[in-house]
Amino acid sequence: MIFLTITSSVLIAMVTIYQFKKEARNYHQDRLIRKEDAVNEHLNFVLQTTDIPVTTENLPLIFKDKIFELSSIHNIQINIYDLKGNLLITSKGNFIVDKINNEVISPNILKIIETTSTKRFIDLRIIDGITYRSAYNYIKDNQFKPLGIISMPVAEETSYYDAQVNSFFILFAQIYLFIIILAIILAFILSSYITKTLQFISERIQKTSINRRNEKIKVENASYEIETLINSYNQMVDKLEESADKLAQSHRELAWREMAKQVAHEIKNPLTPMKLTVQSFQRKFNPEDPKVNEKIKDFCETMVQQIDTMSAVASAFSNFASMPAQQNTTLNVVKVVQLALDIFNEDFINFESTEEEIIAIFDQSQIIRIINNLVKNAIEGIPNYEPFPRISVKVKRESQSVLITVSDNGSGIPEDIKEKIFEPKFTTKTSGMGLGLAMIKNMIESYGGNIRFESVLNKGTTFYVKLPISN
């Protein structure tokens, strides 16, 4: 764009200079022709009124005094030559064009004058940067017979046109500078508008996620290109929302299928020993056996134990599938954490708090369940051969949040299972259903908090629970 502007400006300047020079040439050409015609008429009048015989040899006598008068009247130098090009008389005393040799006319010019139909010729020469024009034509008698040749050299005056060119260039430069400044301002405004719109679109695209509802972009008076980009983004949002719904539905179906498999598996575990117990009791039952009452008692205890296991499985999955409604109250988090630790008898559990009171609004029972689950996992994570078991529970305020940490010096969490820790039904223990961490994670996130952990194999694990004080 800038290159085209500069190129067009240069072309305009070149055309303008050419036009000025052309006008200057035409002006000087016409001016010389007018003077030539006027001088010729005056010469003819002198020739017609003279008493001296009109011959080539008498031309110096005829114009001895008149040539200076003619030169002064017409403000031009006059040279008169014979037909061979030799100078007969000149007004050089008054009009000196010293750069041009006026003594003789070159044979070429004589030949041109003789061969042209108009019997005239204008010679153009540039000497030391100055343009000289010399008009040549015949001096004729009453019978139109050539007597001699008259020459009128003129130095072109270009100061006027030079001043016009300079004025034009000054004006052109001012206009061009104004146009450039205006173009820069307009370019800045347009680029700012386009950049602002593109930045807005870029921010929206960066925030676009399949896990959340994305807003469409609405921009008024946008260019065709920007509008096309916005329409493409809005169409992408529609397709993304459709894909997200399908994906969410697929995840729900998959989750319920996995949950159903897990429930069936957990229920089948106690059903198998119950079936074997019933079959064995039926096969070996003898009413006359003296220990029949004792065997019936053992049978009933075994069945009740398995039934309790099934009931625990059902309760666990019920609790996970449907969390109880939160009963939020204003409480002291420090005291609630201490209360949750009171049920543990292990003397290696230490509690610390940076403040005596951290007041917040939570469901006390859920906070206790969170602490109990984390401490219980910490106890189970410490191997029996550890000579100095240690569990540390800390509470402190961080800006507008409360941070609860539970640390142990247990065996740690292997790298290959760290990503699965909070998944439902995942567990590294021989008992349990792996729903504890998944449940407390749901509780914590329902308050707008988060839970994370750091673990080093054979050195220990630390869980960080961050909850907003005001929710």
TrEMBL record:
InterPro entries attached to this UniProt entry: HAMP_dom, HATPase_C_sf, HATPase_dom, His_kinase_dom, HisK_dim/P_dom, HisK_dim/P_sf, Sig_transdc_His_kin-like_C
Residue span, HAMP domain: 192-245
Catalytic activity: ATP + protein L-histidine = ADP + protein N-phospho-L-histidine
A Pfam family that the UniProt record links to this protein: HATPase_c
Keyword Transmembrane: yes
Subcellular location(s) per record: Membrane
Enzyme class (EC, first level): transferase
Keywords, sorted A to Z: ATP-binding, Kinase, Membrane, Nucleotide-binding, Phosphoprotein, Transferase, Transmembrane, Transmembrane helix, Two-component regulatory system
Source superkingdom: Bacteria
Listed EC numbers: 2.7.13.3
Protein name: histidine kinase
Organism: Paenimyroides baculatum
Taxonomic path: Bacteria, Pseudomonadati, Bacteroidota, Flavobacteriia, Flavobacteriales
